[in-house]
Each structure stands twice: as C-alpha cells, then as structure tokens.
Amino acid sequence: MQSCESSGESADDPLSRGLRRRGQPRVVVIGAGLAGLAATKALLEQGFTDVTVLEASSRIGGRVQSVKLGHATFELGATWIHGSHGNPVYHLAEASGLLEETTDGERSVGRISLYSKNGVACYLTNRGRRVPKDVVEEFSDLYNEVYNLTQEFFRHGKPVNAESQNSVGVFTREEVRNRIRDDPDDPEATKRLKLAMMQQYLKVESCESSSHSIDEVSLSAFGEWTEIPGAHHIIPSGFMRVVELLAHGIPAHVIQLGKPVRCIHWDQASARPRGPEIQPRDEGDHNHDTGEGTQRGESSQGCRWDEDEQWPVVVECEDCEVIPADHVIVTVSLGVLKRQYTSFFRPGLPMEKVAAIHRLGIGTTDKIFLEFEEPFWGPECNSLQFVWEDEAESRTLTYPPEQWYRKICGFDVLYPPERYGHVLSGWICGEEALVMERCDDEVVAEICTEMLRQFTGNPNIPKPRRILRSAWGSNPYFRGSYSYTQVGSSGADVEKLAKPLPYTESSKAAHRSTTKQQPGHLLSSKCPEQSLDLNRGSIKPMQVLFSGEATHRKYYSTTHGALLSGQREAARLIEMYRDLFQQGP
C-alpha cells in the first residue's frame, strides 16, 4: 500500500506558506477546458492567488482541439461560434482580431451550420442519383415547419401527447410522415424519396444534439436551449486561439498537465457523524473503487493527509499526490461523471444530483476529415448529403456494428480551398461513432471512399491522400462530445447538476444571484487580519462547485455555455468572500 505526502505545507514550497499566512482561500480547478480556464482567469483577476488547475491530459482546451496539417488548421472539436450578439466567445475572438480572415461565405445564419453558406447542399441517394432541387426545397420547408413546432412545447407550455413519447424524434418523424402522405400532389415515388430524406435530416439532428438518436431527446425540454442571435463564425487560425486568450495571464505554474484526479474528498471539516451511504454503480464502470474500509484522512489507495489542518476538501490525484483545498471547481464532462461519479466523490453525491447525472444525456459526435488531391465535387456544392432510399419506412436509425457507416449523414466541403485544400468533413454520431473510433484509419478511409463512389455514382473517385478524425467517445477524459436533455430530463436537472456542495440553506452566498461583478481585487494581502479570521474549519458552503457546458441551462452543448459556467462558479466564490470581508473580524 502506498503512503503519500500531502502537498498542503511542503517544506520546499515557500509560496504556499506565504499564501497560508495571508489566509488566502485555496481553490483547485479540475479541468483546463473553457470552463476551467474561464473560472481560473476570473478568480485571478479578482485577487485570488492560491489557485491550481489540474488537467488530466497533456494539453489545455478540453473539447476544443485544433490540429494543424500543412498550412491548414482543422477542428476535431468545437468549430463554430454560434451567434454573435452577447456571445462572450464571439466578443473575445472579435476583440483579438481572430475573425478578420473569415470570409463572407464562412458566415452562416442557417440553423444547420456548414463551413460555407455559399453554394447548395447536394442530396445524393445510395442508388447514385441526385435528389431534384425542387424536391429538396419542398422537403426542407416542410421539415423546418415541423422543427419550429418542436420548440413550442417548452416555450409556450404546450402539453405533450402520449403518442410522441415526449421524444423529438418520434414527434418529428410522425408529423413529417403524415404531412408527406397527406400531400395529394406528390406521386408515391416522390413521397418515398421525401421520407428517406427525413431520415437523413434526423441523423443530422442527432449529430447536432450529440445523441445516439434524436428519439432520445426530450420534446418538452427541447425549446429551452437558446440560440444566440447573429451569424455563426469559424476562427480561421483555429478555435484554440480562444483557449490561448483565456489562458493568457494565467501563470505557468498554476496549470498542471498530465494530472488526472482520482477522488475528491469533501466535507472533511465536518464533525457530524455520517451514517452508511448507499450509492448506485457507475454507468459502464464495473471495477470502480467503493472506498469501503477507509478512514477519514486516508484514501482506499493508501494516500494519507493531515486531518488536523481541517481543510474542507482534499483532492486525491492518480499519482497519489494529495492537495487540500477550501474549494474545488469540477469541470469534467457529463460523460466522465456518468462513468465515475461513485468513485470520484467521497462521501458520495446527494441522490438528487446522482439522479440528474443519470437523466441528462451525452453522446458522441465525431468528424472524419478526408483530403483529396483534386475535388470530384462541383464548385457549387457545399456538402454531400447521404440519403438511403431503403430507409424510407424505418422506425429506428440504429445499425449493427458492421453497418456503422450508415450513420454518416454526409460530408461538408471545407471552404475556401485556398486555405484548406480539397477536404471533406464527415459527421457521425451515437454508438456507430464509437464503432468507427475502434477502426483503423485505413478501414475508415476505404469505407468512406466506397460510400462516396456509391452515392455520387462515380466509381473513379480515388482514396483520400490523408484522413484525420476525432474520437471523443472513447477518450477516457471526455466520454462523449456534449450534453443534451434526454427524454425524462429537463432544465431542472441541469440546475441540480450545477448546484454546489454541500447543500445548505443557511448561507446566502450559496444561493445568491451571480450578477456582474465590479472591477477591482477582492482579496488583498493588505488586510491579512480579515483573511485570517476566515477559519477553514467553519467555512462549509461552496466546497465543491460544478461547471462545464452540461451545467448551463440555456446554452448547454456550446463553447459559450462552458465559458459562462466557469465565470458563474468563480462569481459564487468572489461574492462569498466579498460578503465575508464586509462582515469584518
């Protein structure tokens, strides 16, 4: 059994000793994605000096990952700034000149974002024929009318009928199908083609929601997600530039890379005896550590720390380093929480929060970039959309593992070619994306090439010269792309996920509205007598805070939601210490 030293007061850490003497609250941020960096930056700007960021992977950015190949930058993760009016990510990028190279064609106001609003989407069937333009336009109008109906259930309190099963997919499929069948002007062949197009649209919706199937997305909660007005933008030099802007000014020693966390031991200063805790098993984790038989001040891995210091929280890392703290901001993905929540928190989470973790959804949406020597698509084509004619009457869009490729909804054309070369970006989601992730590059490139030959009717399309793809689902530090409100969940579950621990009604700071803060440092070494009065054993609220895109009720699944959630949790702490300082010694 290993025995590990606490990093709370090491002899060779004079900075920590000085900070402790000043009474600075110690904050540990878990995760260096947009949420974690935004929280860290906000705290540092307000005078918090004892802040540490623990990042499990070897890089910052989280689900932002820009990869440079040759002269072009490709986004394996976040790609678009969705909306401009009031979007903090947009304003950060705009103020720094990151959007200056964005062409008019790359600014999209469409609901389904492409790399270019110029040109047209080419809908191709598995029989190698192109869907006529008038059929595409008629179906698109019909589908958008039904899509708008899905927003009304939340926004106008419209009751959901039993037939829809409270599912966006079930409701949309039946509504679209009935309208197509009731159209007296379309021949049967056109109706079947439109029904097949509907299935392709639903695959796109699944990719946009990052769900295995749009059938799993809650109809009653669907309209709560809020779209920021304005065009969508890409960042030509890479979305990582936004990450770098957030990280700018954060001292290098604050962020520790390659530092995965094993467990957060919270409520350590409580003298309250604790009864037995019964926690359900982690989703998909059959070998998690239950912690049975361990004592306070010791982890199940043998890591020990000094209980006499009365820190409220102790963070235990995978390398067995133990970091005591006053507050921990957890920014890990919902996918990681689903997989590890029983072993990640000691004591276990309240059942209300556990239930929210179970009810909310997260899935995998992956990209497949294919680079070709020359384009085989026409200059007017901004995407190739795959319509399987034999799926017109399908009730489900789930496939056996060997047919994972059927979940690829299509390929976007990267624009402009002067920047990217001749590159297509394919989309796939759900369980089929996980199967794709397990295949090697050669297999994926071969299958994608065969699909392109089949749907274009051109057997001479060569294999791509290069392939690049994401693997968010199998990455142990993410376990998915982004969250959605699953059938059975609602925005209330997002609020429960975001609620700090421990739950308390006695602290107004725990429930205060996080309004915009005034500039200026809140914490200063000029008032050590006040800081020293903040006895660590008596400060129990806000021990564990939660941020990340899945904790933002209106903007979940977005980069601006992640950034705002990090700022929100920092604001809780900033407000908490402002109140305590105002009370005086």
TrEMBL record:
Ranges of residues in domain Amine oxidase: 34-268, 307-574
Swiss-Prot/TrEMBL cofactor(s): FAD
Keyword terms of this UniProt record: FAD, Flavoprotein
SUPFAM superfamilies with a match to the protein in the record: FAD-linked reductases, C-terminal domain (SSF54373), FAD/NAD(P)-binding domain (SSF51905)
Residue spans of biased composition, Polar residues class: 292-302
Residue stretches of biased makeup (Basic and acidic residues): 279-291
Signal peptide region: none
Any one GO molecular function term: polyamine oxidase activity
GO biological process per UniProt: spermine catabolic process
Region Disordered, annotated ranges: 271-304, 503-525
GO CC list: cytosol; nuclear membrane; nucleoplasm
Gene3D superfamilies xref list: 3.90.660.10, FAD/NAD(P)-binding domain (3.50.50.60)
Full protein name: Spermine oxidase
Source organism phylogeny: Eukaryota, Metazoa, Chordata, Craniata, Vertebrata
